[in-house]
Request: fold
Amino acid sequence: SAVISQKPSRDICQRGTSLTIQCQVDSQVTMMFWYRQQPGQSLTLIATANQGSEATYESGFVIDKFPISRPNLTFSTLTVSNMSPEDSSIYLCSVILGGISYEQYFGPGTRLTVT
Amino acid sequence: GEDVEQSLFLSVREGDSSVINCTYTDSSSTYLYWYKQEPGAGLQLLTYIFSNMDMKQDQRLTVLLNKKDKHLSLRIADTQTGDSAIYFCAENVAGANNLFFGTGTRLTVIP
Reply:
Protein backbone atom coordinates (compact mmCIF):
# COMPACT_ATOMS: atom_id res chain seq x y z
CA SER A 1 0.00 0.00 0.00
CA ALA A 2 0.97 3.67 -0.03
CA VAL A 3 1.12 6.24 2.72
CA ILE A 4 -0.62 9.37 1.53
CA SER A 5 -0.77 12.59 3.51
CA GLN A 6 -2.76 15.72 2.84
CA LYS A 7 -2.40 19.24 4.18
CA PRO A 8 -4.36 20.87 5.62
CA SER A 9 -6.62 18.25 7.14
CA ARG A 10 -9.37 20.82 7.47
CA ASP A 11 -9.91 24.53 6.99
CA ILE A 12 -12.60 27.15 7.25
CA CYS A 13 -12.30 29.79 4.57
CA GLN A 14 -14.09 32.92 3.58
CA ARG A 15 -16.01 33.32 0.38
CA GLY A 16 -13.89 34.66 -2.47
CA THR A 17 -10.56 33.36 -1.16
CA SER A 18 -8.48 30.44 -2.43
CA LEU A 19 -7.05 27.39 -0.69
CA THR A 20 -4.25 25.13 -1.87
CA ILE A 21 -4.33 21.52 -0.72
CA GLN A 22 -1.18 19.44 -0.78
CA CYS A 23 -0.91 15.70 -1.34
CA GLN A 24 2.30 13.84 -0.58
CA VAL A 25 2.93 10.14 -1.28
CA ASP A 26 5.70 8.06 0.25
CA SER A 27 6.59 6.41 -3.06
CA GLN A 28 6.67 7.35 -6.71
CA VAL A 29 3.34 6.79 -8.40
CA THR A 30 2.34 7.16 -11.99
CA MET A 31 -1.23 8.21 -11.53
CA MET A 32 -2.71 10.70 -9.09
CA PHE A 33 -6.26 11.90 -8.94
CA TRP A 34 -8.27 14.53 -7.09
CA TYR A 35 -11.81 13.73 -5.98
CA ARG A 36 -14.48 15.77 -4.27
CA GLN A 37 -16.98 14.43 -1.77
CA GLN A 38 -19.78 16.85 -1.09
CA PRO A 39 -21.62 16.54 2.25
CA GLY A 40 -23.50 13.25 2.43
CA GLN A 41 -22.58 12.39 -1.14
CA SER A 42 -20.37 9.98 -2.98
CA LEU A 43 -17.05 10.81 -4.60
CA THR A 44 -16.72 12.63 -7.87
CA LEU A 45 -13.52 12.84 -9.87
CA ILE A 46 -12.27 16.39 -10.41
CA ALA A 47 -9.17 15.69 -12.47
CA THR A 48 -6.21 13.47 -13.15
CA ALA A 49 -2.95 15.11 -12.13
CA ASN A 50 -0.36 14.44 -14.83
CA GLN A 51 3.31 14.75 -14.02
CA GLY A 52 4.98 17.32 -16.20
CA SER A 53 1.86 18.32 -18.09
CA GLU A 54 -1.51 19.93 -17.58
CA ALA A 55 -4.12 18.08 -15.56
CA THR A 56 -7.01 16.36 -17.30
CA TYR A 57 -10.33 17.68 -16.00
CA GLU A 58 -13.66 15.95 -15.87
CA SER A 59 -16.84 17.46 -17.19
CA GLY A 60 -18.02 20.24 -14.92
CA PHE A 61 -14.57 21.08 -13.56
CA VAL A 62 -12.26 23.71 -15.07
CA ILE A 63 -8.65 24.67 -14.60
CA ASP A 64 -9.41 28.25 -13.62
CA LYS A 65 -11.46 27.05 -10.66
CA PHE A 66 -9.34 24.04 -9.69
CA PRO A 67 -5.74 24.57 -10.83
CA ILE A 68 -3.58 21.50 -10.20
CA SER A 69 0.16 21.10 -10.08
CA ARG A 70 2.18 17.88 -10.19
CA PRO A 71 5.87 18.78 -10.15
CA ASN A 72 7.09 15.22 -9.51
CA LEU A 73 5.93 11.63 -8.99
CA THR A 74 5.25 11.98 -5.25
CA PHE A 75 3.53 15.35 -4.87
CA SER A 76 0.53 17.27 -6.16
CA THR A 77 -1.50 20.32 -5.19
CA LEU A 78 -5.11 21.25 -5.83
CA THR A 79 -6.22 24.85 -5.45
CA VAL A 80 -9.85 25.72 -4.91
CA SER A 81 -10.14 29.25 -6.26
CA ASN A 82 -12.60 32.05 -5.56
CA MET A 83 -14.46 29.85 -3.13
CA SER A 84 -18.19 29.88 -2.49
CA PRO A 85 -20.18 27.90 0.09
CA GLU A 86 -20.97 25.33 -2.63
CA ASP A 87 -17.28 24.38 -2.56
CA SER A 88 -17.63 23.08 0.99
CA SER A 89 -16.60 19.46 0.61
CA ILE A 90 -13.99 16.90 1.44
CA TYR A 91 -11.22 16.90 -1.14
CA LEU A 92 -9.28 13.65 -1.50
CA CYS A 93 -6.24 12.77 -3.49
CA SER A 94 -5.73 9.21 -4.61
CA VAL A 95 -3.00 7.23 -6.29
CA ILE A 96 -2.70 4.06 -8.31
CA LEU A 97 0.13 1.72 -7.43
CA GLY A 98 1.78 -0.54 -9.88
CA GLY A 99 1.40 -0.98 -13.59
CA ILE A 100 -1.40 -3.47 -14.14
CA SER A 101 -2.52 -3.57 -10.54
CA TYR A 102 -5.35 -1.13 -10.13
CA GLU A 103 -5.01 -0.72 -6.43
CA GLN A 104 -6.16 2.79 -5.79
CA TYR A 105 -5.46 4.35 -2.42
CA PHE A 106 -6.83 7.51 -0.93
CA GLY A 107 -5.42 10.19 1.27
CA PRO A 108 -7.21 11.14 4.50
CA GLY A 109 -8.96 14.05 2.83
CA THR A 110 -9.14 17.79 3.42
CA ARG A 111 -12.41 18.98 4.91
CA LEU A 112 -13.15 22.45 3.56
CA THR A 113 -15.88 24.70 4.88
CA VAL A 114 -16.56 27.97 3.08
CA THR A 115 -18.45 30.66 4.97
CA GLY B 1 -22.26 6.87 -18.41
CA GLU B 2 -21.40 4.85 -15.33
CA ASP B 3 -24.13 4.37 -12.77
CA VAL B 4 -23.33 2.60 -9.52
CA GLU B 5 -26.11 2.16 -6.99
CA GLN B 6 -26.28 1.00 -3.41
CA SER B 7 -28.92 1.00 -0.72
CA LEU B 8 -28.32 3.85 1.70
CA PHE B 9 -28.63 2.15 5.07
CA LEU B 10 -28.12 -1.24 6.69
CA SER B 11 -28.42 -2.19 10.36
CA VAL B 12 -27.26 -5.48 11.80
CA ARG B 13 -26.70 -6.90 15.25
CA GLU B 14 -23.20 -7.50 16.48
CA GLY B 15 -22.10 -11.02 15.61
CA ASP B 16 -24.46 -11.37 12.65
CA SER B 17 -23.36 -11.26 9.02
CA SER B 18 -23.79 -8.10 6.97
CA VAL B 19 -24.41 -8.12 3.25
CA ILE B 20 -23.99 -4.89 1.34
CA ASN B 21 -25.17 -4.86 -2.24
CA CYS B 22 -24.19 -2.84 -5.27
CA THR B 23 -25.36 -2.73 -8.87
CA TYR B 24 -23.55 -1.17 -11.77
CA THR B 25 -24.36 -0.58 -15.40
CA ASP B 26 -21.07 -0.58 -17.29
CA SER B 27 -20.34 -4.06 -18.62
CA SER B 28 -16.74 -3.11 -19.41
CA SER B 29 -15.79 -2.98 -15.74
CA THR B 30 -12.38 -4.49 -15.19
CA TYR B 31 -12.05 -4.24 -11.43
CA LEU B 32 -14.65 -3.69 -8.73
CA TYR B 33 -13.83 -2.38 -5.30
CA TRP B 34 -15.10 -2.02 -1.79
CA TYR B 35 -13.97 0.92 0.33
CA LYS B 36 -14.74 1.74 3.95
CA GLN B 37 -15.08 5.28 5.25
CA GLU B 38 -15.24 5.84 8.98
CA PRO B 39 -16.54 9.14 10.36
CA GLY B 40 -14.14 11.98 9.64
CA ALA B 41 -11.69 9.71 7.85
CA GLY B 42 -10.60 9.03 4.31
CA LEU B 43 -11.33 5.93 2.29
CA GLN B 44 -9.78 2.61 3.22
CA LEU B 45 -9.43 0.04 0.44
CA LEU B 46 -10.95 -3.16 1.81
CA THR B 47 -10.77 -5.46 -1.17
CA TYR B 48 -11.19 -5.63 -4.91
CA ILE B 49 -12.11 -8.28 -7.42
CA PHE B 50 -11.19 -8.71 -11.04
CA SER B 51 -14.17 -8.91 -13.35
CA ASN B 52 -13.43 -12.48 -14.47
CA MET B 53 -13.77 -13.78 -10.91
CA ASP B 54 -16.97 -14.84 -9.17
CA MET B 55 -15.82 -14.71 -5.59
CA LYS B 56 -13.00 -13.50 -3.43
CA GLN B 57 -12.56 -14.20 0.26
CA ASP B 58 -10.30 -12.33 2.63
CA GLN B 59 -10.69 -13.20 6.31
CA ARG B 60 -14.15 -11.96 7.36
CA LEU B 61 -14.86 -10.42 3.97
CA THR B 62 -16.41 -12.25 1.03
CA VAL B 63 -17.00 -10.52 -2.28
CA LEU B 64 -19.43 -12.03 -4.75
CA LEU B 65 -19.67 -10.84 -8.34
CA ASN B 66 -22.48 -11.69 -10.70
CA LYS B 67 -21.31 -10.19 -13.95
CA LYS B 68 -24.42 -11.23 -15.86
CA ASP B 69 -26.64 -9.25 -13.49
CA LYS B 70 -23.96 -6.58 -12.86
CA HIS B 71 -24.32 -7.19 -9.14
CA LEU B 72 -21.59 -7.00 -6.54
CA SER B 73 -21.93 -7.80 -2.85
CA LEU B 74 -19.77 -7.60 0.23
CA ARG B 75 -20.43 -9.98 3.08
CA ILE B 76 -18.90 -9.23 6.46
CA ALA B 77 -18.95 -12.23 8.78
CA ASP B 78 -19.27 -11.81 12.55
CA THR B 79 -19.91 -8.08 12.23
CA GLN B 80 -18.39 -5.99 14.99
CA THR B 81 -19.14 -2.47 16.22
CA GLY B 82 -15.89 -1.36 14.63
CA ASP B 83 -17.37 -2.26 11.26
CA SER B 84 -19.84 0.62 11.56
CA ALA B 85 -18.98 2.93 8.67
CA ILE B 86 -20.01 3.90 5.17
CA TYR B 87 -19.12 1.32 2.54
CA PHE B 88 -18.62 2.38 -1.05
CA CYS B 89 -18.48 0.11 -4.03
CA ALA B 90 -16.59 1.42 -7.02
CA GLU B 91 -15.79 0.26 -10.50
CA ASN B 92 -12.90 0.78 -12.82
CA VAL B 93 -14.04 0.64 -16.42
CA ALA B 94 -12.05 -0.13 -19.51
CA GLY B 95 -10.31 2.94 -20.88
CA ALA B 96 -10.42 4.89 -17.64
CA ASN B 97 -7.99 4.88 -14.76
CA ASN B 98 -10.19 6.60 -12.23
CA LEU B 99 -12.97 4.96 -10.24
CA PHE B 100 -16.71 5.49 -10.36
CA PHE B 101 -18.29 5.31 -6.96
CA GLY B 102 -21.62 4.19 -5.65
CA THR B 103 -23.70 6.27 -3.32
CA GLY B 104 -22.40 4.49 -0.22
CA THR B 105 -24.16 2.29 2.33
CA ARG B 106 -24.12 3.36 5.95
CA LEU B 107 -23.71 0.23 8.07
CA THR B 108 -24.78 0.49 11.69
CA VAL B 109 -23.86 -2.35 14.02
CA ILE B 110 -26.11 -2.66 17.05
CA PRO B 111 -24.37 -4.02 20.16
About this structure: The two ends of chain A are 36 Å apart (CA to CA). Chain A is about 0% helix and 50% strand.
